Each structure stands twice: as C-alpha cells, then as structure tokens.
Amino acid sequence: MIVDSHTHILPPDVVSDMPKFMSRDKTLCNLFRNGSRVSTAETLLNSMNQNKIDYSIVMGMGWSDYSFNQYVNEYLIESQIKSGGRLVAITGITPQHGDTGIYEAERCIASGSHGFGEVHLSEQRMAGKPFDFLKPYMSMLLTEEFPLVVHSSEPVGHLYKGKGQTNPQELEKLVQFFPNNKMVLAHWGGGVLFYEMMKEMKELMVNVFYDTAATQLLYNYKIFNVALEIVGANKILSGSDYPLLKQKTIFEQINNSDVGSGEKLSMLGQVAARVFKINIK
To answer: Which of 180, 216, 270, 275 has the smallest CB count inside 10 Å?
Structure first.
C-alpha cells in the first residue's frame, strides 16, 4: 500500500481563473502570484494511477479568507466521496475568524474530514501568539483521533515562497500546548526532528509525526537514514507536496534508498493509514 501523505488540489474554476481568486485570498496570492503548479482532483487521480499510488491526502494551504477556505473544503470532501476514498480530505481551518471558523471545522468533521491542515501559522498570522485560539479545533481532533497537519519552516537556509517562520521553537511551543494531540509536522518538521536526540524533546514529541514533503528541495538523500536513526520509521510519512513536485520523485527516492524493506513499508503507507485513519478498501 502506498500513500502520498501531502498533496494539494483546488476546484477547477479556481485553477482556470487564479487571478480572480487570488484577489480574495492572501495566502493563495502569496503562494501562486508568480506562477506555481496547481492541480484538480482529476489530475491528481491520473498521477496516482500512473505511479501506482493507492491513496493521497488532500489538504488546504492555510487560507486567509473564510469563504474561500469553506469553498475549498467543500471540494476536498466532495473529491473524497467521488474518489471512493482514494483521496482523503484534510480540511483547512481559519481560527482567525472566531466562532464562524469553529462552525466550519465542526461541519467538516461531520461531513467526513480526517483532520485539519495544512495550517500555515505565518500566512494566517498566528505565529508568535498564545495557542489558546486552537483549543476548540484540537478538542475536536482529539475526540476523533485525527491529526493536525502543520507547515514547518527551517530556521536557516534559502528562502522560498511560503517558507514562513514556523520554526522548531514555534513548533515546540505548539506541541507543549497540545501534547496529547496527533500532529504531522510537514517538510521534516523544519528540522525539529533532529532535536529528538534530546531526551526531553523525544518525550514531548511522542504524538508527533513527520512527512517528507518537498524533500528534494530541502535536503540531500542522507536525510532518510539520519531521520530513521533519530525517530524511527513509525514516525515518518512519505509525502510529495504534489503538484509542486511530481509524486513519483519521493517514492523513487525511498524505494532506491538502502532503507530496510520493513521500514520502507512503514514509511510508504502503513504509518499514514494509522495516523489519518484511512478506510482501507
């Protein structure tokens, strides 16, 4: 079983008229104003079929506009249903919109969402603030045993669109605030996984997982063995960051690595199936 734990899709009318929707949502504008690859559910499913991928996690991108977030959420859930569950919806949240944001999150869980994300603390202007505003959302997730997916930023290195400032210190504070919640820290957690070599951090991060999204833009091939040595295969989820990057690349990297066969099976899908509670068929 192969699961791509990190992909993004947008409704067809958004894809066909990006300028119109970029004028509504600041995050969409910041990420796509200079041109980036976009995908619909149909295009993603074609890629999955070509690359023999069984399931893909489809998620939001930390939208800033409430109505746009709701519109994309509806498309994610609709795509999950139409695909027969091959696309697994992780819906966006907008805590900056108070009670209306909470009601939308409740609606999504009731409609079949498997978690919330990808939260982008910087783009959504939540970085550096106390995390009390997330309590209603984290309570929902804890009850359902679903994860929060968080965009994570390296504190050093090159800048790129959407990098943000959700660095290891910010992520540590978030996990300290909600230690019992499952979280998936995207992009290898912005490097926070390296700190799991510290006893207190390993204990804190017991419910934290890391996805491999955009690996080839961030690290060299040694990251797989280094990460396995530090946190183990039961905490790593293979993810591509499609459509930014082709799905086949990350899975070829994992399959061509010298990682053990059992560890590969865990990373390629077994861990994701448990974390996201995928309905295996």
So the answer is: 180
DSSP, res 118 = E
Conformational region of residue 151, where left means phi above 0, alpha means psi within -120 to 50, and beta covers everything else = beta
Q: In what order do the strands lie in the sheet with 3-8?
A: 3-8, 55-59, 87-90
Superfamily of domain 3-275: Metal-dependent hydrolases (3.20.20.140)
Closest CA to 64 of 104, 26, 108: 26
Looking at this protein, which amino acid is placed at residue 272?
A
- Least Cα distance to 58 among 38, 44, 37, 43 occurs for 44
**Closest alpha carbon to 90 in 217, 3, 2:** 3
- The per-residue pLDDT for range 179-207, each reduced to its tens digit, is 999 999 999 999 999 999 999 999 999 99
